[in-house]
Specification:
The chain contains ten helices and no strands. The protein is mostly helical.
Length: about 230
């Protein structure tokens, strides 16, 4: 079992390592401007159909709407990748879609963003502080033990690895590779886990993991992850 899990993590690491050089190369081509990113985040650009990001994601990326993620202090590289994933790439469909493949809310905004826009707003958000007083938190005491077990040890009988192995014990994540889940809205985390499992959010590693988890498993670990600090 340990050998199988080790192989899974090695494969995932190789996939990520292979993707990062290309991402770094793309970032080198455009110098991010945090001030310009702040302007776009706060005001948008209606001439291009770009809604002000603050409308959904809150002041400095601190969302007060459970369906919309907290983006404050998220890694620059991670935000860049996610914004790209919402938009089709040439003749390839968007990597991130909504349930049953329906376009996500971001599908109407991301295609209008230039490479410079993406770099700018991602840098701005990465420099903001998460407001822990209004951040997401665990709310279901009855599932706390189950969520903690999955987070720390996985589900051995179904070859589900511990979430902490990639997202760290305190949910801080790994900059450039795995996002912070601590303080994220539990409702948002759960929705993303379901999208991974359905394949509507394309991610081979997360699909393999969530496909072996039940709805109660997903709900328990999503709630626990949000409460990490």
């Amino acid at each position: 079992m340990k050998r199988a899990l080790s192989s899974m993590f090695m494969a995932g690491s190789l996939m990520l390592a292979g993707a990062l050089p290309g991402l770094a190369h793309a970032q080198d081509a455009v110098k991010p401007d945090a001030k310009a990113g702040e302007q776009l985040f706060v005001n948008g650009d209606m001439s291009r159909g770009v809604l002000a990001c603050v409308t959904c994601h809150g002041d400095a990326g601190n969302s007060t709407i459970p369906a919309n993620p907290n983006l404050a202090a998220m890694p620059h590289e991670y935000l860049v990748k996610q914004l790209r994933d919402f938009a089709p790439q040439g003749d390839k469909p968007a990597v991130r879609t909504g349930p049953d493949g329906a376009p996500s809310i971001m599908a109407t905004i991301a295609p209008a963003l230039t490479a410079q826009d993406i770099q700018n707003v991602s840098l701005y958000l990465s420099q903001q502080k998460l407001d822990w007083d209004q951040a997401g938190n665990a709310t279901n005491e009855s599932t706390m033990d189950r969520g903690q077990q999955i987070w720390r040890a996985g589900i051995v009988g179904r070859q589900v690895p511990a979430c902490a192995a990639c997202h760290s014990a305190n949910g801080a994540g790994l900059p450039g590779e795995f996002p912070r889940l601590a303080g994220q809205h539990p409702e948002y985390i759960l929705e993303q886990l379901k999208l991974f499992r359905s394949g509507d959010r394309a991610n081979t590693i997360m699909y393999d993991i969530t496909s072996r988890m039940t709805d109660p498993d997903l709900a328990a670990v999503a709630d626990f992850a949000a409460g990490l600090r």
